[in-house]
């Protein structure tokens, strides 16, 4: 058996017990307003502290969790943990920021999804306006009519909505106009070579222009270099996220960063 298949088997067999054993944790990556340099939000990214493999990134097990149905309890755990942590930061007296949570297409289709969001907000005492939901463009476009209705319900709650991996999922302007969204998030695949690849630069430029004309915020993910940031500045992109500012950090390190920036 090759190493990939073996790793997959180890992950699969451990996944079910991982939640009971408390092996998941969240890392937090700041989103930054480009004009002011201030942190506007943090994205919660789930990690698995595997007893043998060490820290496993989300991309390696979220698809498995979706196949096995674990995504439902895991998704709820992530939402609740993220809201709880954010509320905790607010109670410590830090400037209130949004906490962004990635939601799988499977979770969205749960009949009681909106109700669960309400319950989690009530249980953690976090206000809806400080919760941001990230949904991928592909999921939204799988069933645009369903998405329009669901996003409207979320928006009515006061939750902030971002379309993730934007540019990879074939939205039309006509669709975008119908969605109650606040933010378009440019997929990092377009940012990687934006300084050297004319097509990627054209796509990023078009997304920013479209967002600006629809009065939507536009955030670029995967920003790693000053050159990429300069490109975004020139086009008046509103926010950025990526290793250039910070990697996703464990809660304790994120706390330290939040306290430091307040001391400026
Ligand atoms: P995503 O939502 O598009 O998240 C961005 C991914 O890019 C994250 O990987 C993040 O760690 C990584 N990243 C951040 N900055 C940079 C950068 O400057 N350069 C590069 N090359 N990468 C960067 P991660 O954490 O492994 O997550 C992968 C995907 O797994 C996420 O993609 C998201 O779709 C999913 N995911 C993560 N956490 C959750 C979760 O709690 N629930 C669900 N349903 N999905 C999650
Ligand atoms: Ca995301
Ligand atoms: Ca992405
Ligand atoms: Ca993604």
UniProtKB/TrEMBL annotation:
InterPro entries: Cyclic-di-GMP_PDE-like, EAL_dom, EAL_sf. It holds the Pfam family EAL. Residues 8-262 form the EAL domain. This is EAL domain-containing protein. It comes from Geoalkalibacter halelectricus.
């Amino acid at each position: 058996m090759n190493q990939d298949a073996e790793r997959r088997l180890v992950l699969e067999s451990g996944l079910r017990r991982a939640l009971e054993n408390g092996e998941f944790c969240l890392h937090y990556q700041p989103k930054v307003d480009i004009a002011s340099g201030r942190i506007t939000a943090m994205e919660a990214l789930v990690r698995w502290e595997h007893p043998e493999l060490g820290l496993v990134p989300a991309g390696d097990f979220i698809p498995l969790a979706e196949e096995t149905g674990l995504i439902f309890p895991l998704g709820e755990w992530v939402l609740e943990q993220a809201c709880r942590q954010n509320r905790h930061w607010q109670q410590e007296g830090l400037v209130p920021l949004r906490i962004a949570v990635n939601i799988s297409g499977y979770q969205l289709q749960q009949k009681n999804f909106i109700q669960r969001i309400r319950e989690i907000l009530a249980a953690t005492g976090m206000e809806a306006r400080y919760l941001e939901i990230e949904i991928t463009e592909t999921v939204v476009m799988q069933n645009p009519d369903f998405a329009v209705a669901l996003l409207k319900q979320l928006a009515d709650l006061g939750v902030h909505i971002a379309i993730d991996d934007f540019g990879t999922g074939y939205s039309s302007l006509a669709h975008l106009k119908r969605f109650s969204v606040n933010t378009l998030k440019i997929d990092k695949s377009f940012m990687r070579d934006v300084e050297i690849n004319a097509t990627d630069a054209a796509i990023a430029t078009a997304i920013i222009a479209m967002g600006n004309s629809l009065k939507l915020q536009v955030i670029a993910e995967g920003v790693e270099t000053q050159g990429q940031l300069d490109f975004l500045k020139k086009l008046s992109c509103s926010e950025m996220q990526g290793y250039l500012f910070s990697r996703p950090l464990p809660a304790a390190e994120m706390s330290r960063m939040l306290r430091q920036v307040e001391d400026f």
